[in-house]
Amino acid sequence: MPSLYVHVPFCIQKCDYCAFYSHGLTNYSKELIPLYLEGLEIELANRQKDAPQGVSSLFIGGGTPTALPLDNLEHLLKLITRNFSFAERAEKTTEGNPGTLTREKLILLREYGINRFSLGVQAFDDKLLSNVGRIHSAQQARDGVLLLRTLGFTNINLDLMFGLPGQTMSLWKTSVEEALSYRPEHLSLYGLMLEEGTPLYDRIGEGLDRAESTGAEEVRREEAGESYCDGDRDQGLPDDDLQADMQEWAVERLEKAGYIHYETSNFALPGFECQHNLGYWRGEEYLGLGPGGVSCLKRVRQKNVEDVRAYWASLHEEKEPLDEEGKEILSLEECMAERMILGLRLREGVSFTKFREDFGVDLRDIYGDVLERYRYRDCFVIQGDRLCLNEKYAFVANGILREFVGGAG
Amino acid sequence: MAQASQRIRNFSIIAHIDHGKSTLADRLIEYTGALSKREMEEQVLDSMDLERERGITIKLQAVRLSYQANDGEVYELNLIDTPGHVDFTYEVSRSLAACEGALLVVDAVQGIEAQTLANVYLALENNLEIIPVINKIDLPSAEPERVQQEIEDVIGLDASDAILASAKVGTGVEEILERIVTMVPPPQGDDEAPLQALIFDSKFDAYKGAISYVRVVEGRVAKGTTMKMMSTGKEFEVTEVGVFTPAMKIVEELKAGQVGFIAASIKNVKDTQVGDTITDAERPAAEPLPGYRKSTPMVFCGLYPVETNDYNRLRDSLEKLHLNDASLVFEPETSAALGFGFRCGFLGLLHMEIIQERLEREYDLNLITTAPSVIYKVKNILGEVLDIDNPSNLPVVDQIETIAEPVVKATILVPADFVGPIMELNQEKRGTYLAMDYVSKSRVRLVYELPLSEIVFDYFDELKSRTKGYASLDYELAGYKESDLVKIDVLLNGELVDALSFIVHRSKSYNRGRKLVEKLQGIIPRQMFEIPIQSVIGNRVIARETVRAMRKDVLAKCYGGDISRKRKLLEKQKAGKKRMKQVGNVEIPQDAFMAVLKIED
Questions:
Q1: B512 vs chain A: nearest CA distance in angstroms?
Q2: Which residues on A lie below 8 Å from B562 (Cβ)?
Q3: Domain shared by A268 and A346, yes or no
Q4: Which pLDDT tens digits describe chain A residue by residue (409 residues)?
Q5: Fewer CB within a 10 Å sphere, N or C end of chain B?
């Protein structure tokens, strides 16, 4: 049974670091909302057939789904529930920006069975928020969490970011501590990624190079006894070492607070792991609808066009609204590689049995040489039926994950 | 018969790099109409891309020009090009031996350089008539009078009637041609004498085999002649003889005084050694022409494919290059760190760089080159003398009685202001002072004996940087000297990387060992684990640095929407890493193996 993701390509204003497909809502882009909903109506109907047993979970993401006006939001929820049936007690998540929450919208979401809310807090610090073009204040985030609780959301995720321009270790700790004080069921802690084509990249894109060639400057600082965070480096990006320190500190702090570090960037109280996202990491099937949505059924992956008008037009012409790359047929090798690079993000790792069931070969036969090479320093841990990455390498996992792609060895 | 050779002139051009030799050659070809303008590619004589890019001649070429002089007669002028680098001194000497005259081209701004001087001496040894040409007089900073004076002072050559030229704009070209006709003596030699042809270059052709570029000194050669190489006694039947127009053109025969080529279906360029004499097997000359020696590689390095399965391709490519370049030698070797590769010998550093670049460019190979080494003569306790061209083959200390290293006699020409820095440099490089004199009021010639290994190390770069580029250098091998040498090994992550071992004088060992690990620390990227780097002499660690473990190399987010993109990103990164060599659990960038050359004393 696949999961269902619905992409809402609208937000109040795009954040400086965001590379996802979304329109900041202007008078012009507002006209796209009806086209979007019309297209989505057709697509939802067309794609029912891909989930004859219904879907296992729902995730309405974006963009900012809660940026939609109330009536549009209701229309969206109606379309989804009309076309798809859900597994019993299915997890249904909506994302939202603290600057877009209203009592009415949240009540509406509850009425349509949304039982999990993911709030993009990023930091409890106005300066850091405005540095990256977030539209909301720390206070709005606080109010948002309380409102969600008041309205009965018992499964809340808070997104926090580290590595923000100007962020120091102590600012990071402050945000994490405040987040913990609300005892959310789930926390996602993301290291900032500089993505090409974003305003942040253009502004401090060269910081990428700097971050990669750390070495000398760090050593100098270390030897000089300087801390990384001194001075007025308001727009300066914390370097890799500081980011690593931030991550390490947070992992320890959250584990102490009872959260399970169940994926590279995700933490949950026991039983509150995000079922929808676990599906991706475990290699299960998914439908991704709306412009820019990506579906993967069996070995066929397809991406919808990132253009509301083109999306609408295709659907009206009874065509699939795919982007120019069309359908990607994954080779067995690519599927296996993905299983590894996704599964090893998880604390639970990759199941040998499931690997054999899904691909008809033994994981050890395919990747034996990699496992052997990295036995050195215990990079892998085998727990019963599962192959896991040693947690100590979680933050440098790419070095190992690369071994699984582009042909083994 | 002697009549015909009266109208032949054989000459070459002596010039420092960048002093305009190739441009001048082009102008001469153009002026005499050997090629129409349309046919002329810029700088015809430098036929390899690499040569053109670097503005140097590596492979010799020759061209026959037909020139109607002011006396009304048509002359056959044979221009034999010479490579302009110290690595190829022997080849230059053979080219000059094939001529009766030489144009000495000196830059009107720069003046005489050491390399030019060395080649002028070679020309004088060969009794060549020298015609001074002061080139680039069109430059605003040209000082022809000063340069004229310098030619007189330094070489002792009357330069009062030096030709003032600008090859770039074409000034002086006709005067040069006239002067060649009037001043360069016609070749002597008897068409009827037993054949003696001097090989000044050779080239491999897929259809014709190894082709000898020759100057016929005595006698004649034609298709059907059974020719004999006088150094080896090997015999071949001549299939073609011809001249360079500059394209190869077959002729009936080549006679005394002429320059051309001989093809004889020879399978290997090794059989057409530069400097050897070709004679007629049926009527052999009593003696070969003087001056032949086998080309001896001076500098050695290991060449390894980054991808192990490129080994066969590397071997094939080396064999192909060797077809045209007998001075390149190579034999298989195995490195514990780098796997299967070749130990290659070169005439010098430039030669090494050129071969490397051609392998990478023309044969698309991804290579690791180890730091160059010289041949050490090691006497072991049994009294045997071993030639060690790879530091990792040096016997263990208690097996060694003595080690001797090659030394060169180096001549440095430098403005007087820089004598101090040069002496200091030579001191640091373990040089022995031999002589110093003023070649003009402002220029000094210094002669030192220097270990070749120091020249291979970073001498050129230091020389240039300490004299703002004004010094020039020439050197020749001057034998072997015993020296107090030690081998430094490098351990990465506790494992010996044999390809990083090097031999160094004991007095410098501590310093270089320490600098090398510091350099490697900068070159080796941070990896998943901490990597200790140690340099050791025997069992003693002399320096240690650590490449700290990488701390962040992760995809923060990876959800359904961008799994493909993230997988492709990892694939791309993996492909990028292929330029590094995995040694044990450490990824080592290619330039790490040359790091020892990039440290300063």
A1: 20
A2: 294
A3: no
A4: 999 999 999 999 999 999 999 999 998 899 999 999 999 999 999 999 999 999 999 999 999 999 999 999 999 999 999 999 999 999 999 999 999 999 999 999 999 999 999 999 999 999 999 999 999 999 999 999 999 999 999 999 999 999 999 999 999 999 999 999 999 999 999 999 988 889 999 887 654 444 443 444 444 344 443 333 333 344 678 999 999 999 999 999 999 999 999 999 999 999 999 999 999 999 999 999 999 999 999 999 999 999 999 999 999 999 999 999 889 999 999 999 999 999 999 999 999 999 999 999 999 999 999 999 888 789 999 999 999 999 999 999 999 999 999 864 4
A5: N
Burial class (CB in 10 A: 0-12, 13-18, 19+), A283: buried
Domain co-membership, A140 together with A251: yes
CATH at A390: 1.10.10.920
Residues 555-584, chain B: which have Cβ within 8 Å of A?
555-564, 566-567, 570-571, 573-575, 577
Closest residue, chain B, to A281 (C-alpha): B559
- Inter-chain contact A396–B553, Cβ cutoff 8 Å? yes
**Residues of chain B found within 8 Å of residue A294, distances taken between Cβ atoms:** 560-564
Q: How many domains does chain A have?
A: 2
Does residue A409 fall inside a structural domain?
A: no
Using alpha carbons, list the distances in angstroms from residue B438 to B134, B154, B416, B419, B424.
22, 9, 8, 11, 18
Within a domain: A180: yes
Using CA coordinates, name the residue in chain B closest to A289. Answer: B561
Q: Is A398 on the interface with B (CB under 8 A)?
A: yes
Calculate how close chain A gets to B498, using CA atoms only, in Å: 21
**A297 φ/ψ angles, rounded to the nearest 5 degrees:** -120, 130
Indicate if A345 and A214 belong to the same structural domain: no
Residues 508-537 of B with CB under 8 A from A: 522, 526-529
Residue B600, Cα to own-chain centre: how many angstroms? 24
Give B361→chain A minimum CA distance, Å: 26
Residue A249: which CATH number? 3.80.30.20
Count Cα atoms within 13 angstroms, Cβ side, for A73: 28
**What span, in angstroms and rounded, lies between the C-alpha atoms of A20 and B204?**
60
Determine whether the interchain pair B560/A334 forms a contact, defined as Cβ–Cβ distance below 8 Å.
Answer: no
How far is Cα A210 from Cα A215, in angstroms, rounded to an integer? 10
pTM for the predicted model, two decimal places: 0.75
- Given A246, A281, A316, the domain boundary residue is A281
Q: Which residues 6+ apart lie within 8 Å of B338 measured at CB?
A: B302, B304, B368, B370, B499, B581, B583
* A339 and A248 in a common domain: no
- List phi, psi (to 5°) of A403: -65, -20
Q: Is B2 on the interface with A (CB under 8 A)?
A: no
How far apart are the C-alpha atoms of B289 and B308, rounded to whole Å? 46
**Is B546 at the interface with chain A, CB within 8 A?**
no
Q: Which of A247, A265, A377 sits opposite B529 (nearest CB)?
A: A377
B585 touching A (Cβ < 8 Å): yes
Taking the C-alpha atoms of residue A317 and residue B480, their distance in angstroms, rounded to an integer, is 86
**One domain, residues A222 and A360:** no
Q: Show the domain range for A19.
A: 3-281
Q: What is the ipTM of this complex?
A: 0.91
Last residue of a domain, one of A250, A281, A312: A281
- Asked if B554 lies within 8 A of A334 by C-beta distance, the reply is no
Residues A258 and A359 in one domain: no
Q: Point out the residue among A286, A345, A405 whose CB comes nearest to the CB of B571.
A: A405
Say yes or no for a CB contact (<8 Å) between A214 and B566: no
* A56 and A164 belong to one structural domain: yes
- Does residue A324 sit within a domain? no
The DSSP code for B61 is -
Q: Which residue of B has its CA nearest to A300?
A: B564
Return the C-alpha torsion angle A266, A267, A271, A272, nearest 10: -70
Q: Do B566 and A341 touch (CB under 8 A)?
A: yes
A310, part of any domain: no
Whether A256 and A195 map to the same domain: the answer is yes
